[in-house]
Amino acid sequence: MNARVTLATARRILAQLRHDHHTLALLVGVPSLLMILLRYVFDRPEAFDRVGPLLLGIFPFVIMNVVTGVATLRERAGGTLERLMTMPLGKLDLLLGYALAFGAVALVQVGAVLAISLSWLGLDLRGPLASLVLVATLDALLGMALGLFASAFARTEFQAVQFMPAVVLPQLLLCGLITPRDQMAPWLEAVSRVLPLTYAVDAMGEIARRPDLTGRLVADIAVIAGFTLVALVLGAATLRRRSA
Amino acid sequence: MAVRDLRVVRGGREVLHGLTFDVPAGSVLGLLGPSGCGKTTVLRALVGVQVVRGGTVTVLGEPAGSRGLRRRVGYATQAPAVYADLTVAENLRYFASVLGAPRSDVARVIDEVGLGASRDQAAATLSGGQLHRVNLAAALLGRPELLVLDEPTVGLDPVLRRELWELFRELAGHGTTLIVSSHVMDEADRTDRLLLMREGRILADGTPGGLRDRTGADDLETAFLTLISEPTGSTA
């Protein structure tokens, strides 16, 4: 691992995004728009106060998952990954470069959505803002790491995009957003307990309801961080210096 | 550089059947042969990105793909491996920082491949020949001791091709070893040594002059065609 290479990689990924104005606009604009939509779909402030923060945990996860999946697939298919693998670049340098760059993008994304939600949409958040930003950023990194891992199993960008619903939708159904988890079939509740998005949504629920840092919130954050770390290690395992 | 009994299996089929050859330092080796004969696989084995079934590949005194070699070997793939959405200079700046090459290297390699006018152009908007030169420029960063170039002059006009070969000769004059694959026979004459391949085997290994003498042909194209139609390969 080498800080110079990691930072250069993060800078390079951000430069790529800077050249791609459409993607940048979509990254910030789409979640903001969805949040506005959600506010007026409910049209009841108390319902929005309950669900809004949950979505703040889900957006960065879903979006970073897709963006990273496609970005790393392009590196694999375009030969740049192979070029980097012949150079003095550690796998961790590449992963952390992606994590830094997309983590920064996630911060901007969450910041924009949060600013709109708290001012215009009148979201009433009981918990500390800092822990919400922390959980949202961790969610983004988790989505990124899973996207990187999944991209190893896709041969084309079409397949990579298909992985998104495969990875995200079941988690979305089971995370407690649609139905409280204790009302699900017991075996599904058991499944939901091993899915990372469950903890992301649970953490956001805690932040929405309680003004202080609860033990449950700390446990949720630890679980999300653990999942992220495991996904990063799995992602690193899919980067190979030699191929057939 | 020493390759001993190199065997590679791809897609369940053996594509290199026990290749053995040496490359003296500071020389230009040309790797020639019909499309699909295994040239790229040989080059990939030399830079250490190819899974090999058997044999040894020693590069600059170390096993191919060793950590220590990643700074000493430059590799340009046949299909340009650069970021299409970045400019020429941004691409090269990134690869230079990964290599730990001095910043001034970026200007040097842009100059060497003659891309000064398009340094701030996005790679996606370059012509095929320009893109190839960016790819080559990336391999030149950090002044590697060994340059492995897969069809570096494909799609380039004759003037540029001559300029690049002059650059290759100059690099070899300064002690760089170059391994260049090509299927253009007139380029073969510019190498110090030729390795002629067919179907995963070495058909001939010698100097361009030696190959002409052996086949009695005036030009290498005829020599190549003579050798390729011989039933079995032997070493010149």
Structural description of this entry:
The complex is a heterodimer of chains A (244) and B (236). With 244 residues, chain A is mainly alpha-helical. Chain A has one domain. Helix content of chain A is 79%, strand content 0%. Chain A has ten helices and no strands. In chain A, helix 6 packs parallel to helix 10 (215-237) and helix 9 packs antiparallel against helix 10. Chain B has 236 residues and is of the alpha/beta class. Chain B has eight helices and ten strands. In chain B, the strands form two sheets. Chain B has a six-stranded mixed beta sheet with strand order 6-7-8-3-9-10, sandwiched between helices. The longest helix of chain B is centred in the last third of the chain and has 16 residues, at 158-173. Chains A and B meet through helix 1 and helix 4 of A and helix 2 of B.
Brief summary:
Chain A is mainly α and 244 residues long.
Q: In terms of topology, how is this protein built?
A:
The complex is a heterodimer of chains A (244) and B (236).
Chain A: H1 3-19, H2 21-42, H3 45-78, H4 80-85, H5 91-118, H6 129-151, H7 157-174, H8 186-192, H9 196-209, H10 215-237
Helix pairs in contact in A: 1-5, 2-3, 2-5, 3-5, 3-6, 3-7, 3-9, 5-6, 6-7, 6-9, 6-10, 9-10
Chain B: E1 2-10, E2 13-22, E3 28-32, H1 39-47, E4 54-59, E5 62-63, E6 73-76, H2 88-99, H3 104-112, H4 128-140, E7 146-150, H5 158-173, E8 177-182, H6 185-188, E9 193-198, E10 201-206, H7 208-215, H8 220-229
Parallel strand pairs in B: 3-8, 3-9, 6-7, 7-8
Antiparallel strand pairs in B: 1-2, 1-4, 4-5, 9-10
Helix pairs in contact in B: 2-3, 3-4, 7-8
